[in-house]
Design a protein that fits this description.
The chain is α+β, with helices and mostly antiparallel strands and 222 residues long. The chain has a single domain, classed as Alpha-Beta Plaits (2-Layer Sandwich), CATH 3.30.70.1290. The protein contains seven helices and seven strands. The strands form two sheets. It has a four-stranded antiparallel sheet with strand order 2-3-1-4, with helices on one face. Strands 5-6-7 form a three-stranded antiparallel sheet. Helix 2 packs across helix 3. It is globular and about 50 Å long. The N and C termini lie far apart (38 Å).
Length: 222
């Protein structure tokens, strides 16, 4: 059996990917209000900060920060999945092993989790989340995808609205867009804190290092 471990770091920040069991379905975007309700229900009883999130038809990516001294991200993930499943009509395909345990067949049992190591790692994963709809060719521009925290961050000044550019004619990201996606010159969210406050670094075109930019804090709703 694979040695499948989870890293329980109290009060840390984590990147997650969670997939539907049937990857051809579009349940997450077709029932986005039910998904939002599941998140609200869970956060009411087990608070945490959603630093960034994108919801695609069959999977989602998100970065969370847990309260100081709290390492129960697995509990939160389980409750969200369960709450969403309860809100959907039954009838999905369920394996014998799941049926024997009384489980639904909405989600894959496992999920990808990565512990954020530092500010640069945090920024890379935030960028990855927001570029994801373009990567999957669902839209031509990051701003075109509605189910993303990108729009909130634009309003807060973390990103410019045209961040990462437009998809080129050959189906890839334009050179200017690729540069922004890789380096995020101009605006970049660089760190997070259990309070929900983010350290935003605004960098000039002359400097690529985070230490050279102006810093300010932006706090997100928890």
């Amino acid at each position: 059996m694979t040695d499948y471990r989870r890293n329980f770091l109290a009060g840390g920040s984590f990147f997650f990917t969670v997939n539907l069991a049937e990857r051809h379905l579009r349940l997450l975007t077709e029932h986005i209000d039910k998904l939002r309700s599941a998140f609200r229900e869970t956060r009411r009883h087990h608070p945490f900060t959603i630093d960034a999130m994108v919801v695609l038809p069959d999977h989602l990516h998100t970065v969370w920060t847990l309260p100081e001294g709290d390492a129960e991200f697995a509990t939160r993930r389980r409750l969200i999945k369960s709450a969403f499943s309860r809100r959907l009509a039954t009838g999905e395909r369920v394996s014998e092993s799941r049926a024997g345990k009384g489980e639904r067949g909405i989600w894959q049992r496992r999920y990808w989790e990565h512990t954020i190591r530092d500010d640069n790692d945090f920024a890379r994963h935030i960028d990855y989340i927001h570029i994801n709809p373009v990567k999957h060719r669902l839209v031509a521009r990051v701003s075109d995808w509605p189910y993303s925290s990108f729009h909130r961050m634009v309003k807060l000044g973390v990103y410019p609205e045209d961040w990462a550019g437009d998809v080129s004619n050959d189906g890839g990201i334009s050179e200017s867009g690729r540069g922004e996606a890789q380096q995020a010159d101009g605006f970049r969210k660089s760190s997070t804190h259990p309070t929900g406050c983010a350290l935003v670094i605004r960098r000039s075109a002359k400097h690529s290092g985070a230490s050279s930019g102006k810093r300010s804090r932006i706090c997100f709703e928890s």
